[in-house]
Amino acid sequence: MTARFPHAELADLPQDILATILEIQEKSGFVPNVFLTFARRPAEFRAFFAYHDAIMTKEDSALTKGDREMIVTTISAANNCTYCVVAHGAILRIYEKNPLVADQVAVNHRTADISARQRAMLDFAVKVNSASHEIGDADFDALREHGFGDEDAWDIAAITAFFGLSNRMASFSGMMPNPEFYLMGRVPRS
Amino acid sequence: MTARFPHAELADLPQDILATILEIQEKSGFVPNVFLTFARRPAEFRAFFAYHDAIMTKEDSALTKGDREMIVTTISAANNCTYCVVAHGAILRIYEKNPLVADQVAVNHRTADISARQRAMLDFAVKVNSASHEIGDADFDALREHGFGDEDAWDIAAITAFFGLSNRMASFSGMMPNPEFYLMGRVPRS
Amino acid sequence: MTARFPHAELADLPQDILATILEIQEKSGFVPNVFLTFARRPAEFRAFFAYHDAIMTKEDSALTKGDREMIVTTISAANNCTYCVVAHGAILRIYEKNPLVADQVAVNHRTADISARQRAMLDFAVKVNSASHEIGDADFDALREHGFGDEDAWDIAAITAFFGLSNRMASFSGMMPNPEFYLMGRVPRS
Amino acid sequence: MTARFPHAELADLPQDILATILEIQEKSGFVPNVFLTFARRPAEFRAFFAYHDAIMTKEDSALTKGDREMIVTTISAANNCTYCVVAHGAILRIYEKNPLVADQVAVNHRTADISARQRAMLDFAVKVNSASHEIGDADFDALREHGFGDEDAWDIAAITAFFGLSNRMASFSGMMPNPEFYLMGRVPRS
Amino acid sequence: MTARFPHAELADLPQDILATILEIQEKSGFVPNVFLTFARRPAEFRAFFAYHDAIMTKEDSALTKGDREMIVTTISAANNCTYCVVAHGAILRIYEKNPLVADQVAVNHRTADISARQRAMLDFAVKVNSASHEIGDADFDALREHGFGDEDAWDIAAITAFFGLSNRMASFSGMMPNPEFYLMGRVPRS
Amino acid sequence: MTARFPHAELADLPQDILATILEIQEKSGFVPNVFLTFARRPAEFRAFFAYHDAIMTKEDSALTKGDREMIVTTISAANNCTYCVVAHGAILRIYEKNPLVADQVAVNHRTADISARQRAMLDFAVKVNSASHEIGDADFDALREHGFGDEDAWDIAAITAFFGLSNRMASFSGMMPNPEFYLMGRVPRS
Q1: Does the model's pTM come out above 0.90?
Q2: In whole angstroms, what separates CA F45 from the centre of its chain?
Q3: Any idea what the CATH number is for the domain that residue E96 is in?
């Protein structure tokens, strides 16, 4: 699919946004399309990545980086977002050092080879995604059985909610994953 | 319902967040609960309201402020979010100077007393909310019949996506509307 | 929206129906549109209001008048019926002497500020509305924990079923609420 | 299944209800369970059958008696109501003089051996049943192509809405069809 | 409905398929349409009926022949397949020697006059049909309470899965039941 | 996840089944779990693979082998079957010589980089999978616009229906993909 919205021209970008983009290019070797699509709108770009960083790089959390990307991959598949499943599936494989896990949670997290704690985390995320108005005490209790407190529940919910936003923006705008993502984390380093 | 997460203590807040909260109090006469709930997490507070402002106060848009709040009210009702329906329904009544419109779009935007252009805008928003992966050319064409271009479609989608995030955070956390919102914009000024 | 079916002409009405309509006008100060729409069909008018009265004014019931209107408002919102949510939300506010409750149950009865007994009542009503074929012993047991016996269950089911009929007739025919309903019960009497 | 609510005792019934029941017994050779269940509540009995008669025996209608029972059978199957599918399927077979039609519309009216006009009638009924809030001009236009005017649309909607009520009452209360209904209209008279 | 795909011509059929068809005609007095439709494609015909026989005539199973046809009828109704509901409903009535059971399970197996063991069997089948990815330990445990082991669960799942295939082929191709099926097993032999 | 049903012991297998398994091992270098799971039941094994071969290796078809695996991958994702998405996604990548296509159609075939003809083919398959009872002339016409005749429609429907069976058997039984599948077709040969 051709993206409906053209990428921002680097020459037109405000300094801070350009700097962010050059940094990610340096670090990853390519610029994920989400950066070049959101850069068309600087104020939204800044808010989007500030939100992303606030929840995905937050330090005092019971959720590992792998846990967080597992939530993102699961929710993005539930929302049928190709960009986010492929891009965050890649990051999930790397963080979990597991080349199989992303494909598993994307299709059915209930049978994936993950821990019972992760399954409970994903059950909560899936319910926040599809029926947040039905979340109640029993859902928090189920988390608590696996050591997740209320602040951890907030972390799970916030990641779910933020990527629900991201999924809708990517799908509506026809954003497709960079080819680099598909193979990342699949081939063992030798 | 009692909110599951206690409000932030004003005394503990960073300066910028405290300033934002005092300003809204000054302007509105009360502090909407969404501010005091998100203030528990300063980084998320800043990103949330930066995103909100980027899309809700953006100047070069075909969407009026009333249009935007109409999207918010409609989507929040589809997502069963009490806080957002009541709070944004209030703002919608004020911007549209119409005491009836919020209750109408919250139940069924298809029969509300709004313009055909607004109905098309809400149809697009509702589809982004419930099935963004099925958005296609026909949906953009339907907008175009009412003068909405691709950038306007982005505005509609961004508001829809952001309040999908907001709805999930409010519902999951048991956030309830301040009592002040319920009556706002209902009684004609004399 | 313009109602698809014109109101009955008072001059054409049978005596008993005219009398009913004049009485409600006297009592309420206006004639709710449901009367003038159904009056187009006298036999249906008589049966509709006989049914309504049989279940809504029934005396030997564990359900208060406020309970009954709370069921109506909740179910009508689930069925996206603007007329019934607005009109019966008004009556609910008056009976419960609570200006906030109608907007709360219309969006999400699970988090509304109502009693646990009322929540159980609405849970039962919502299931009769959406999946009556799955109602079983467990549902009656859940009612019983709050003191509702089988006859009370019948009352809840009958109100739910009758307003399911009413919702469909109002929505299909484009019936809109009289403007008077929107503000009723919202402003405290001084 | 055993019905949850015991049948009314004939000895306890008001005269008019007893008369109705004796008449149906005389005419049909048995008393359908819906009469004996509703008779427990005389006011509801009277309103229920008055409504039934108002729409099912109405004379000036484009809908034949067979058409009406076809709507009832289709809608009752969509709502998973065993009593109504079996009882009204029987009456449908008799009115249409067609031993196959009831089983066909109960499973999938789209492929049943009925007229295009009847298919359009059932399409409208099915939408009123499942999504009355989405009924719009296009639905009335589709009826009009087959000669159905607005009053006919009302007839279809009223039958759909009334049997939605009936389905919920029968299913919630565990009402089962009398054994007599299952074979009625299936064996050609010789 | 007219079937979209013409029946195979007997003269064109391979020997083995012709033999199968003549045998069923001899035994039943007519050739069910499913034979003549699949015979258009000999390789698929052979595989289809081999699969059918493997699961429906398997000897070492806790499921009686009546149990198996009860699963088929229930699942086929859930999938809105007219051919399979009518044809297998007929066989179910015969095996169970019960003229009422097929119509009951087709509309709502939860309230049908069947054993608690059969209800558990159908609950499992219905979940395999609609949400096989959510099947978990609790579902196998529920079967076990009624004496069904893992191999019985396989039998139930295999029948459900195979008739899911059959339902889609019949519905997509416009296959309708032979008239003979409708009355089979309904009239007591004298 | 641990598969709920143990693999068949090779030593116990009938000759023909053992031969099939050794052949696939020879050809692929490993034995896909579906063979070892179904081998527990020889009659079902034979029928399953006979059906598979009848539709997947059929020669006179407008569908290429890549087209067929694309249907399988898309439908298996819609049915949340991890085994089939991973195993057939691998084969799809190989047949299409496209390392990206499987991940794309698994998440959202509407935006995948495939031909308009393939998108129409998948639209038809998705509808047969989720609502075969609503398939009608318009669906066949949409296929015809891309050169697919009625026999091609049968091919698409048969593949969809057969893998619906396969998906349910794999998910219900806890079958997981062999690790070999995940990387197949992803790394360009050098």
Answers
A1: yes
A2: 16
A3: 1.20.1290.10
Contact, E184 vs E13, CB < 8 A?
no
Q: C105 is in which domain, residue-wise? A: 63-182
Note whether residue B33 is domain-resident: no
Residue B138 lies in a domain: yes
Helix axes B42-56, B150-172, angle to 10 degrees: 150
CA-nearest of C101, C65, C63 to C85 is C101
Q: Is residue B177 assigned to a domain? A: yes
Determine which of A5-14, A107-116, F93-102 has the lowest per-residue pLDDT on average.
Answer: A5-14
Q: Which residues of A touch F (CB under 8 A)?
A: 1, 77, 80-82, 85-86, 89, 99-100, 103-104, 106-108, 111-113, 171, 174, 176, 179, 182-183, 186-187
**E interface with D, Cβ–Cβ below 8 Å:** 1, 76-77, 80-82, 85-86, 89, 99-100, 103-104, 106-108, 111-113, 171, 174, 176, 179, 182-183, 186-187
F172 domain-assigned: yes
Give yes or no for residue E15 having a pLDDT over 70.
Answer: yes
Quick one: pLDDT at residue E190?
Answer: 59
- DSSP-assigned states of every residue in chain D: ---SSPPPPGGGS-HHHHHHHHHHHHHHSS--HHHHHHTTSHHHHHHHHHHHHHHHS-SS-SS-HHHHHHHHHHHHHHTT-HHHHHHHHHHHHHHHT-SSHHHHHHHHGGGSS--HHHHHHHHHHHHHHHHGGG--HHHHHHHHTTT--HHHHHHHHHHHHHHHHHHHHHHHTT----THHHHTTTSPP-
Determine what percent of chain D is predicted with pLDDT higher than 70. 98
The Cα of C44 is separated from the nearest Cα of chain A by a number of Å equal to 38
> Distance (Å, rounded) from C-alpha B63 to C-alpha B50?
19
How large is the ipTM? Answer: 0.97
pLDDT digit string, tens, across residues E49-93: 999 999 999 998 999 999 999 999 999 999 999 999 999 999 999
| Per-chain mean pLDDT for chain F | 96
Run of H or E including C105: helix C101-108
- Secondary element (H or E) of residue C83: helix C82-96
For residue A119, the surrounding DSSP H or E stretch is helix A116-131
